[in-house]
Amino acid sequence: MNSKVAVIILNWNGYALLQQFLPSVVKHSGDAMVYVVDNASTDHSVQLVHEQFPTVRIIQNIRNGGYAGGYNDALKHIEADYFVLLNSDVEVTKNWIPPIQKLMDSDPRVAACQPKLLNYYDREKFEYAGASGGHIDRYGYPFCRGRVFDACETDKGQYDDIRSCFWATGACLFVRANTFHQVGQLDEDFFAHMEEIDLCWRMQQFGYKIMVCPQSVVYHVGGGTLSQQNSKKTYLNFRNGLGLLLKNLPIQMLWYKIPLRIFLDQIAACKFLFDGKTDDFKAIGSAHRDFIKNFNKWRKKRYHHQRKNLLPEVYDGSIVWRYFVLKNRKFSNLDKNKFTH
Questions:
Q1: With left for phi above 0 and alpha for psi between -120 and 50, is residue 81 left, alpha or beta?
Q2: Which of 35, 167, 174, 230 could tie 200 with a disulfide, CB 3.0–4.6 Å?
Q3: Is 297 helix (H, G, I), strand (E, B) or coil?
């Protein structure tokens, strides 16, 4: 049995998703051990796994701690060299594990890696949650090779090179187990959304690398927990985006980047209001209020070893300006010289 890799699927009331996507994981994961971690579901998910997937191990959490808490609770009980945090709405393909395992085996500095994520319903397009590797701009807005804001490119092999990135998607995140525990696991105050970016940022502060390996391919439905149209998702993204910056930015950048980020967020709120999306408009206001209310809580999580400069693979410009003003909606249109090295 291959004890090196543990594939861990977090589930919360996901009976239909497990029924649809767990067969591909069992079929294509070779000797890796497959786990379903149940976040205190109230449907028949656990019974389904027991009855139809006898080789899959089950860990039942006593609470729904969201993405971060659910995985933190479960990973304490799993021994492996590599954890694969896999969303329940992902269809994996033949040979999806070996290319990434080989890459991580070859370089102990690689702490996390992701495959290429394609859209389950439109299989020639990149998928929103991670595409072919994640980045952030100087104000902390995330985007990907193959996806800038809501614009997902068609996959024509243009991003098939193995390379470093700033963050790897939490939808299918390969992470070195000892590094995961070393840097402090996932931050449960994020609950869901951007916690993987925070984890990858922290890993890089410790001197590790984040990679994307497009020779591994998976198909992601997306929105399995919260759809793109859900105002709760808007709230979490905007609140967590500010928390991400406060926790991780070099201290000399905080005094001007946090206010600028709030200003840009307010422009986004006005656009939501103009488009008639009042729930999203209110969600941004709530996100800002809660961030300010909990400012000291986020601040106390800062680490003492922050670099004085931005980490590699940060786009030292504004993706908001490039996308909304200049109408450059492809990663390939970005000035490569603006990525920090």
A1: alpha
A2: 167
A3: helix
- Which phi and psi angles does 158 have, rounded to 5°? -70, -15
The Cβ of residue 317 has, within 10 Å, a number of other Cβ atoms equal to 15
- In the chain, which ranges are continuous DSSP H helix? 15-28, 45-52, 66-75, 98-106, 177-182, 195-205, 231-248, 251-274, 278-293, 295-299, 319-320
Q: What pLDDT, on a 0 to 100 scale, did the predictor assign at position 304?
A: 65
Return the residue matching tokens 């949650």.
129
DSSP 3-state helix, strand, coil percentages of the chain (rounded to 5)?
40, 20, 40
Residues of the chain with pLDDT under 50: 1-2, 224-227
Per-residue pLDDT, 125: 97
What DSSP designation does 284 have? H
Pairing label, strands 209-220, 110-119: parallel
What is the crossing angle of helices 231-248 and 278-293, to 10°? 30
Is the Cα dihedral 59, 225, 249, 298 positive or negative?
Answer: negative
- SS3 of 336, please? helix
Tokens of 111: 């702490």
Give the residue carrying structure tokens 């977090």.
10
Domains of the chain: 5-220 (3.90.550.10), 231-308 (no CATH)
Is the CB of residue 165 less than 8 Å from the CB of residue 214? no
Neighbours of 123 (CB within 10 A): 12
Rounded-to-integer distance, Cα 42 and Cα 27, Å: 27
User: Would you state the structure tokens that stand for residue 42, as one six-digit string?
Assistant: 């109230």
Measured between alpha carbons, how far is 225 from 230 in angstroms, rounded to an integer?
10
> From CA 98, how far away is CA 249, in angstroms rounded?
34
3-state secondary structure of 86: strand
- Which one-letter DSSP state was computed for residue 308? S
Query: DSSP string covering 168-183, please?
Result: --TTEEEEEHHHHHHT
pLDDT at 230: 83
